[in-house]
Each structure stands twice: as C-alpha cells, then as structure tokens.
Amino acid sequence: MFMSLEGGWRALFDFVVGNALPVAVTTLAVWVTYYLLRDRAAARWLLVLWLVPIAKMVAPVSIATPLSASNAVAPYWIDRTPRPSAGKPLQRTSLVWGRETPTAPENAAMAVGRTPAAWHLPKLMDLLYYAWTLVVAVLLARLAALHFLFVGSILKRRPVLRQEILETLQECKEELGLNVPIDIFESDSARSPALLGFFRPRLLLPERMTQTFTLEELRMVFLHELTHLRRHDIVMCYVLKILDILYFFNPFTWLASRCFRAEMECACDELTLAGERGKYALPYGRVIVKLLEGYSENRLIPGTAGILEGPKSILKRRLTMIARDDRGGSPRWTGITLAMTLILGVAFLTQAKDDSAPGQANYWDNYKAWEASRRSDEKKAAELLPGLIKNVYLVTFQPVNGFDPKNPGEFLTEFGRTSGLLSGKDRLGGASFFRTKVMGEHLIGSFLTEEPEQMKADIKKNPSLRFMFSMELTPKIFVEYVDSPQESLPAPKAAAPPDTKVASSTDQRAGETTLKHGDDTVSGVRSYGGEAGPVVLFTTPNPDGGELLGLRLKGSRYGYPEVPDENITIYITDRACAKVIAKRELPYSAFAGRVGTEPKKQYAVRVDFLERVRVPHEFNVYLHANAHQTKGIYWAIGGGEAATANSRLGEGLPPKTELTGIGKGGWMVEAVLADTSAAK
User: What digits encode the pLDDT tens for the residues 469-503?
Assistant: First the structure.
C-alpha cells in the first residue's frame, strides 16, 4: 500500500511540474481577456472565465481537437515515429544460456516495460521531487495548524446572542432561501467580516463590530456573507488554497487564485443587490467604505470568504460597479464573455490532435488499438503487432553488490536513481510497463525501449545494477510479456535442519579410513547449475560394504557476499546412481568466507554425518548445490588416472540421473569410513 501511495504522490508531482507551463500560458491568455472585459461584463461571467485556468490546474488533458492551442507546438513534442500497421515479423533472436553458470533466464519472455523515447528527464528531477514534497508537506501542515488553531479559538468564545442581531440574520437567510444553522462570533482574530466552514458555517465579525455598526449596516454584511454560502464559495476557497500549495512555485497560479477570489467578491456584490435589493446599493456601498476605513483583509485565516477580499484596485472596481445601474452587465457583453470562455476552454483544456497519416500513429495509439483488437478481432491484432514492436528492444538487468530487491517497487526506485527514462508515465500511467521476474532467489528487471544503448549506459552508471542482455522483440515474446504478471520474491524459507556437522579439522582421526582418488594437487575448478553436480564412485575395502562417517570436500563458494540460508544436498546412491541410500544436508555456511575461483583458493571442508550411513561395496557420492548465477560452489578438480576413472557429472537428481565423463582429472572428494579392521 505504501508503494502505491508513493507512486501516486510521485505521479502528482509529475503532473504538477509537467502542467506548470501550460497553466502559466492559460492564465496569461485568460488574464489578457479578463483585462479587456472587466469593466464591461458582469462579474459572475468573468468568474466563469477564471474557471478555465483553475480547471487546467486540476484536470489532465484528455480530449484531442484540431482547435487546441497545443497544435501550435505539437511538432516539437508529439511522437510521430512511423509505425506501419503491418509488416514482416522480426526474426527471433536466439539466446543460448551457459550451462555451468547461467547468465540469463530460461524464458526470454520475462516481464519487461516500455520506455517512451521522447521522455528524458534530468536526474535533477529526483532532487526537485523531494524538495517539492518537503515544501508541500510544510505548507499543508501550516494550513491545517492555522485552521484548527483558529477554529479552536473561535469555539472557546460564546456566540453573539443579541436577539435583534439574530432576528436580522434570520431575515437575511429567509430572503436568500437558506435554511442552515449559522452562529455569529466576534473575534479579535477576524480583521473583517468573513464566513468560515461549509459543513457547519460560522459568521465571523471583528471584535465590537456589533456595537459600532447599525442593524441595517449589519444586514448588508449578512446578505453579502450569506450569498457566499448560497454560492458554495467556501468550497472553492479551500480548493484554491490547496492548488496554491501544490503549485507554490508558479506565480501564475497565485495570479489566477487571487483574481478568482476577487471576482468572487464582485459576483457576491451583484447577487446581493440583485432584483428588489438593488435599492440598497447606496447604503451597501457606504458599508463597504466604512469597513475599508476600519478593517482589512483576513489573509491568515484559511478557508474563509470575506467581504474585503482582493487588492485596492478590485475594491475600487467593486464600488464603481455597485454605483452603476447595469450591475448585471449588458446581454452583448455577456455573450462576448461566454464566447471567449468557450474559445479559451477549447483552446487550452484540450490536447493537440495527432493528425499523423495512416501508418504513422504514435506508439500509444497503436498499442491501445492492438490491445482492443485482442478482445474482438484477432486477425486485426495480428496485423497490428509487427508494426507495434518494430525497433523495440528488450533490455534486462540484475541487482548486484548487495542490492537485493524484494518487489518491483524497490527495483524501479533503484533504477530511477540513475536513469531519467520512464515507463509509460505519459499516457498509460505509473510504472505500468516495468516488469520483474524471479530467477533463483533474486529478482531481475526488464524494460522495452526504443533506445537500448541509452538504457544500457544508464544501467552501467548504477553500481547496484548490472546489464545482462538486450534483444530485438518478436511478436511471441511481446505477447508473452503483456500477459505476464509482476513477480516478487516469496517470503524466505528457513533451510532444513542440517544433519551434518562441519568439523574444525580435516585431519584423519583414529578409527577411520579414507577413500580417495588421485593426489591433493588442485588443477582446476568447475561449477554446474540446475539439477547437475559432481558424482564420485567409491569402493570399500570390505566386500560387504561399510559405515560412511562423512566426507572431505574441496571447493569455494561464489555469488553474493551474503551466505544463502540454504543447504547443499549430498546424495549417497548405489553404483548406477539409480537408488538413493541416504541423503544429507550440508549448510552453505560450511563455505562461508571461502570465496575464490583460482585453484590456490580452494578450501578443504570436513563434513561429519550426525548418523552413520551403511553403504554397499560400491557407492556414489552426488553433490548438488542448487547453483545458479548468483550462488554456487566451485568444486575442485585434481589429477590422476584413478580420479578421472571414478569421477562423473550427474545430470538430473537421483533416481533419474544420467552419468557422463568430465574429461581429464577428477573431483577432489574423499569418503571417510569407519575402520572395521581397527575395531577388530
């Protein structure tokens, strides 16, 4: 859940930053229009005009039209890469895995992700994201603190209870058709009359205002503030405050918010004096002047709508409008204002239309068309697929140097530290095309990209990641990718309790006999992955067999520095390796610190069985380390004809084991038996 919240917050940052310039351009265009119309059109229609930049800040673009202002810059940012709707399928790139130490997964159609070529963001964006998050968090905390502190201080006061004032408020509510309980509070924190809250609204008045204003003057103030309540302006005040915080770095957001709030006051003046109440225009104007003489704007109180909002120029325009007879504006200018609002809305609230010729649709349009066709028209989907994957490459990488992600979110976060390549964030959202696949005990990650060399270079910059391979896509691999889920590592399993003990000394003890082949000189090392491992044949001195006490092994561990919490399995089988006589578990920790690939760095380990194993005259020791590219054992090889003759490679676990020779040399494995002759 945390990862989804973090991803959503990062997506919000991407939207706000990416939307900053369009918001600025939209606000500038609306302000020019507003400047030309403000002394002619009614305030309520000018308020609708300012909804255009507000909507631009909130809503992502979704509708493409040829009338969008974005068409003027479309040639610079729309991806018009040619994408033929059909074409020859790409030849599949064959991947050959090393049998001994695999370096890539067996299924090349592992999870992958799409990286649009047009989206390169500088690494500075990560720093900006953290800085933006910090500032927004501080501003939101300040807003919440101011709100609760102020509301708390108000609730500690007793509301105004003078009967004539309450009766005047009730008359104003009835006149405006409101049936909402409202308390009146006087507070020295209120610098001018204002309405606070929308669930339980409260009318705030400066201290002693009920004593210095007549009932008729208070009636004018009440009508204005109740008009805010009727128009739901308090909700808009909170919305504007949140937008100011999210776009704190954008001065055009402040301009739009300030003008909207100022025009909101003008619209309230118009509605307050609408109809028969127009006869109160003169006393209403005098009340505004009286308020200006003794009070000021409530700038520090969040989420309030006050009668003195806006700069002095707006207040001057309000007084001029109040004195006019045509406060509602003429029908001509109303029509012009609405027309300009519609034009600006279409121009700035829509996106550029991609008028690419057929066969030149951008990648995402092709992808969505192919995805829809898969459900309804398989033939069409097959025709679209070759063009969809043309020049798209699969790039796969793995974690190294102790970085061991447990889920896709950790992997993608680490990848983003050194790469600005994103995964479908422009239209498909989030990290929708990044995939991970479990390989052995670790995750590997993949992307689809049109720029494999750029991605490869980004991966090489990150010390926690290692490039594995890249390949051009085929239709089959792409389809398998789309249908593949994200994978995470399962909860770790504790290794089975070992039934062996690693001795502190490898020396032979009294009452033991050692079976071995060849000398003690190491001539090489080998390691096998999957269900394969060294097999050594032993013959007991006694034709009736004997009791196996343990083994001496020579080898070294490779892979991650951390020792895996796993076991190496030791099979004791018959000569044909078809029957398991006994099975023992040796912890990987037996080779802890014994890491090295050179013959001189091979280490001897004495393994004692906690319970003796009765073996026949001829028996095999099969060592299975469950190795892959991130962990395993390099088993030492020694010289001698006897070692070569008795050493085999076992492929497949017993009893389904095939034995093959390993060439010159043999495994440096010794069997420790109880010395029956000594017992006699």
Answer: 888 888 888 888 777 777 777 765 555 566 667 76
Check pLDDT > 80 for residue 656: yes
Q: Residue 152 contacts by C-beta under 8 Å, 6 or more apart in sequence?
A: none
Contact in structure between 594 and 557 (CB atoms under 8 Å)? yes
Topology of the domain covering 391-490: Alpha-Beta Plaits (3.30.70)
Average pLDDT over residues 661-666: 86
Question: 79-88, 100-109, 253-262, 536-545: which has the highest mean pLDDT?
Answer: 536-545
Question: pTM of the full predicted structure?
Answer: 0.49
Q: Where are the domains of the chain?
A: 391-490, 500-679
- 568-586 burial, b if ≥16 CB within 10 A, otherwise e? bbbbbbbeebeeebbebeb
Residue type, 288: I
Helix/strand/coil (H/E/C) assignment for every residue in 292-334: HHHCCCCCCCCCEEECCCCCHHHHHHHHHHHHCCCCCCCHHHH
C-alpha to C-alpha distance for 14 and 296, rounded to whole angstroms: 38
- Give the class (CATH, top level) of 500-679: mainly beta
**Tell me: the pLDDT tens digits for 234-260?**
888 888 899 999 999 999 998 998 888
Nearest CA among 497, 492, 445, 452 for reference residue 472? 452
**Cα separation of 14 and 478, whole Å?**
28
Quote the DSSP letter at residue 397: E
Q: How many residues comprise the chain?
A: 680
The secondary structure of the chain in percent helix, strand, coil, rounded to multiples of 5, reads 40, 20, 35
Residue 229 CB-density burial (10 A; 0-12 exposed, 13-18 middle, 19+ buried): buried
Number of helices and strands (H, E) in the chain?
19, 25
CA distance from start to end of the chain? 70
Helices (H), 38-162: 43-58, 74-77, 124-155
Bridge partners for 184 per DSSP: 203
- Separation of alpha carbons 428 and 363, rounded Å: 11
pLDDT given for residue 122 in this prediction = 41
Least confident range from 196-210, 423-437, 516-530: namely 423-437
SS3 399: strand
Q: Which residue has the higher pLDDT, 417 or 247?
A: 247
- pLDDT for the residue numbered 180: 86
d(C-alpha 226, C-alpha 205), whole Å? 13
> What is the 3-class SS of 531-558, one letter each residue?
CEEEEEEEECCCCCCEEEEEEEEEEEEE
Measured CA to CA, the distance from residue 632 to residue 528 in angstroms comes to 8
Task: Evaluate whether 118 touches 79 at the Cβ level (below 8 Å).
Answer: yes
Backbone φ and ψ for 54, nearest 5 degrees, come out as -60, -45
Backbone angles phi, psi at 107, to 5 degrees: -110, 110
